[in-house]
Amino acid sequence: MDNILNDFLSVERLESGKVKYNYTTFSLSKVVNEVVYDSNMLLKEGQRILYPQDIDDIILNFDEKILELALSNLVNNAIKYSPEHTNIDIRVRMKDQHALITIIDQGIGIPEAEQKFIFERYFRAANALLNQGTGIGLNIAKRHLENLDGDITFTSIENEGTEFTIKVPAQPQTTAP
Q: What is the pTM of this model?
């Protein structure tokens, strides 16, 4: 119930332009660890979250809570819309001073005809209507990320799975002397 209320309050703040972002410098691994830890409670029988490799040195200057909100939304959706005994794979790579965080599931996928609506507020794909949800999480995540010069994109094949990618600015990598 708290999550639903927070989603609606978040929509109101976004609509009114009263969102205050808090940029801090933090390790990507810190946020990924928190999200994975919290999401483990939601796993169905036999589901596993595959943790990304070699991310300890990726430093972001971003709103940590917004990244956590977006990543949590995607990982929790991957769990919710995937069957038992499947993996949710989190992958991270760097490209053009951005961190790309991809969440890959083996779930129900998004029907092709409905993919253009997936980030619209309150939209729920026809094949997802039996699952709990408000249809506003992806809309909130996308709007926050775009306000912070980030983005969220996806590819999906119905009955095979979905890949969502969060793109956020990252600190330039420095090499040790």
A: 0.86
